[in-house]
Amino acid sequence: MANGERLVVKVGSGLLRDPGGGLRDDVVRHIVRQIVSLRDAGREVILVSSGAIALGIQVLGQASIPKAITHQQAAAAIGQGHLIRIYEDLFADFGKKAAQVLLTHDDLRVRRRYLNARNTLLVLLQYGVVPVINENDTVSVDEIRFGDNDVLAAMVCNLVDADRLIILTSVDGLYTADPSLHPEARLIPRVDDIDSIEALASSATHATGKGGMATKIRAARMAGATGVHTHIANGFEPDSVLRVLAGEAVGTHITPPETPRLSSRKRWIGYALKARGEIRVDNGAKRALTTQGRSLLPSGIVAVSGTFFFGDAVYCVDTNAHRFAQGLVNYSAAELQAIRGQHTSRIEPILGAKAYDEVIHRDNLVLL
User: Which domains can be identified in the chain, with CATH numbers?
Assistant: First the structure.
């Protein structure tokens, strides 16, 4: 794996927090040391780190994440300062600089803010600084949350054109079954078809985290859609990041599909935006979208759900309710209810005006 690769390394709170509630200083230092080695070798590294809420609840004297989101936000506000100070001090010990970057999903939803975040991260990398990214839990609500830092890490890969995503966790990788319940479970070293493993992922979480293996598979799918290789490895193992990049069979390597890499704008449409609704299409329309590179016309629409307006992102689903595409819509949900199944020549008589023939133009559509 060549020097000059751009990497995103994600570290979960289950890896960082010791059973007593404090931070595993030896683990954090070991991860920082590996990142410093990569920087010295010419690679660019972005660190996505959980841990703010876990550190905050330690200060508050609690044993697990509180259920109320306002209490989670308070814990994040307390813990985030501790977290970035730890990283700044550790990187400084090795002669490196770190920078805190806090994001919400809203920062990536708005195209201008998406580009601003991208430019900031790229400039930090040019300066040789290691960006330390976390979700801005203090201000996040459901509408603007990523959901977990696995998904955030995948979106950061798409944001900065990363080559690899390395997810460090407390297990060795993806197994054929839950190894804590099935001792005979085997580690899966390589996955070339992500559809074949999705059912294996456990959604179990730990007391101070939000993600399980299912979120890591989702992150790998999102990253793989833009040509990013994903590695899931045990962060407790010595030099696990360095060994992955040296080509050793460490953890689980999920390869991206052999499809052309999406443009930055297509990545933003398909993976930075949250869909506001769904458009169900017939088999002919699905075939036109998926194999013929066509736009979506009202004649192929059989049903509309959700509340959305011009410019919002929506899913395209088939007759089996399978989501196969996401795009920017040219008409509101109410307008589509009126014109679904109709020829484009009927749009103006029904709505009184016709801004577009296409419900979703092919340039604004991404196959998932």
Answer: 6-265 (3.40.1160.10), 275-367 (2.30.130.10)
